[in-house]
Amino acid sequence: MLISFLFFTTSQCPIIDPLWEDPQGVPIDAIIFGGRRADTVPLVFESNSWAHGTYLGATMNSEMTAAAAGKIGKLRNDPFAMKPFCGYNMADYMQHWLDMGEKGGDAMPKVFYVNWFRKNEQGDFIWPGFGENSRVLKWIFERTEGTVGAVDTAIGKIPDIAAGDLDTEGLDVSEEIMAELFDMDNDLWKADTLNNEKNLGAYGLDLPEGIRSEHFALKKRLGMK
Predict the structure, then answer these.
(1) How far is CA 149 from CA 50, 51, 53, 166, 183, in A?
(2) Is 185 part of a structural domain of the chain?
């Protein structure tokens, strides 16, 4: 019954790709990761490569909420949001992603990371979210089409707000808040990277070399030893 119901609702979706059941598959232009973070992670950024995007998925962290067991606000490492569902060694899962990139080459999707949950010093969310998230999706779509720019940073590529990369027309968010949404405190990122190093260390010798090399490349870009 459940499978039948899901099939019905999917087939009736007015915006679904008409090729969604094509045996050859449907081309994917972008993959979006995300976590609930009050600080550190900007509103959106793009990976430098497929391998870098795989590293972003492998090091996903999200603050716990009342819906998850554990201390509210504490970071929980959940690679690819698959930790509760992966039925084999997560390190092998990471390698599978890297292998897909080797196979697909330039045809692989771009990888993005989003964070709708940045807060100010008073603990209030500073991005309105909901329908306004479509502005971020618009930038992602345009990046896949090559029609909008980006700025290189230590963690990846972000929209150049001053250049109008992110559509903010009619958005009731000040320039100061927009700057805060894309603020990347180097000390916070260094601490986050060390936390990720600890998480990745749990895989020992099973950790793929591709993930290890991306991790040390990030450390170098952040000015870490």
Answers:
(1) 19, 21, 19, 9, 18
(2) yes
Nearest to 81 by CA among 63, 62, 67, 102: 62
pLDDT range class, residue 3, cuts 50, 70, 90: very low
The CA-CA-CA angle for residues 152, 154, 156, to 5°, reads: 55
Q: Which residues pair with 31 in a beta bridge?
A: 111
In angstroms, the CA 32 to CA 45 distance is 10
115 in Cβ contact with 43 (< 8 Å):
yes
Single pTM value for the model: 0.90
Are the beta carbons of 50 and 130 closer than 8 angstroms?
no
What is the count of structural domains for the chain? 1
CATH number at residue 43: 3.90.228.20
Q: Residue 15 domain-assigned?
A: no
Strands 30-34 and 157-158: unpaired
Alpha helix (H) ranges present in 105-185?
Answer: 133-145, 175-181
- Contact status, residue 11 vs residue 5, Cβ threshold 8 Å: no
Q: Is residue 89 part of a domain?
A: yes
Q: Is residue 21 part of a domain?
A: no
Q: Which domain holds residue 165?
A: 30-221
pLDDT in tens, 48-95: 999 999 999 999 999 987 555 555 668 999 999 998 899 999 999 999
